[in-house]
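Ticket #349: bound-state structure for EPU.
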Amino acid sequence: MYPIANQFILSMTIFQENISLKPYNTFSIPVSSHYFAEVFSSSALEELLKSELIKEQQLLILGGGSNLLFTKDFDGLVIKMSIPGISEEIHGDEVIVTAGAGVVWNDFVNYCVQKGFAGVENLSLIPGTVGASPIQNIGAYGVELKDVFESCSAYEIATGKRRSFNHQDCRFGYRDSIFKNELKGQYIITEVSFRLSRVASINTQYGAIQEELVKRGIAHPTIADVSAVVSHIRVSKLPDPSTIGNAGSFFKNPVIEEDAFQKIFEKFPELVHYPAGNGKVKLAAGWLIEQCGFKGKVVGQTGTWKNQALVLVNHGQASGQEVYSFSENIIDTVAARFGVRLEREVNIL
Ligand code: FAD
Ligand code: EPU
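RESOLUTION: The complex was predicted; output attached.
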């Protein structure tokens, strides 16, 4: 290890001290990190995990920073995952595509769409990296990561040992996995493999996709059509983090028992809801928040997005605390009106 100004190098990895995390989180919250290291290979990560530098250090594994809200400076080491690479193995009509944790999720989707590998086109334009995709089992427009996930490789932080996780190991649920529960903060994912199809089976069950295809006069969509349509819908509804800070849906859609649902539904028959299986019902959190008068509301430097009340935004100079306090206000107001407590989807730090 040798120092250069506020940087030092440990073999393959450059460390920086006291750096701003503003460019590294899509909420654009101006906090700083004590140490910051960017990792470009599994071997560099393995070496880092063996080094004294990370012992007794609070760690944050960072992808694209698109599902985080920083409420204070980070007094530890941020490990930014930038492992590149995409490869595939063809098995008849199926293909196993493996991508490095640092690959930008939408670049991975575009790669698959261009090669005619079906399965991830409905997940077009979700921000972030491949490595983070299993953490909350990303989902959109009728597809979840679990529908295409094959396995992932990860290092255990405590031991530096490598382990593979299969589908069952990950215990995926709605915006949930083992990495958010029992194994929270314990593993660093280095690559993810996906089982995709070379014979397109298009999933257009989501109403908005069908409507847009009809508008475009497309009767027999390809996966490229689905990808284009999903991207179009997303751009019309969601704020672009490069112009207005946000982390997508700030809360999960609440999933409640059927009898609890019936009680609310009697009072609010227009309540937007969907069957969630096992006698449960999913409520549209965006609707609950809008009904409380929050849609498009601006409070200081924060607020909700004008086209989607579930998305909290930074109007430029918001602090993480300000966004967090506003989210408390929303949770309390929705609970008082509907008796449902919203749960945050974004990771709070
Ligand atoms: P980060 O925000 O960097 O990290 C998220 C969590 O994963 C943190 O706990 C972090 O420590 C952990 N982590 C990251 N990488 C690794 C790794 N390699 N190993 C171990 N842990 C890791 N999500 C959806 O599911 N569906 C959507 O439709 C959707 N739309 C969005 C729209 C917008 C405009 C935005 C800003 C966000 C949206 N999101 C959506 C949320 C976000 O895109 C996903 O959660 C994404 O997977 C986060 O990836 P990331 O690389 O930015 O993760
Ligand atoms: N709605 C309102 N007002 C609003 C927003 C929504 O009334 O301000 C109602 C509408 O009836 C609308 C329904 O809620 O039809 C559902 O809205 P939308 O289709 O926008 O989806 P969502 O449930 O709000 C979820 C995900 C998104 C994902 C979309 C599309 C969660 C927490 N969010 O949003 O994921 O892109 O479906 O599948 O499940 C994310 O996780 O960051 C994210 C953006």
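RESOLUTION NOTES: The mean pLDDT is 95.
TICKET STATUS: resolved
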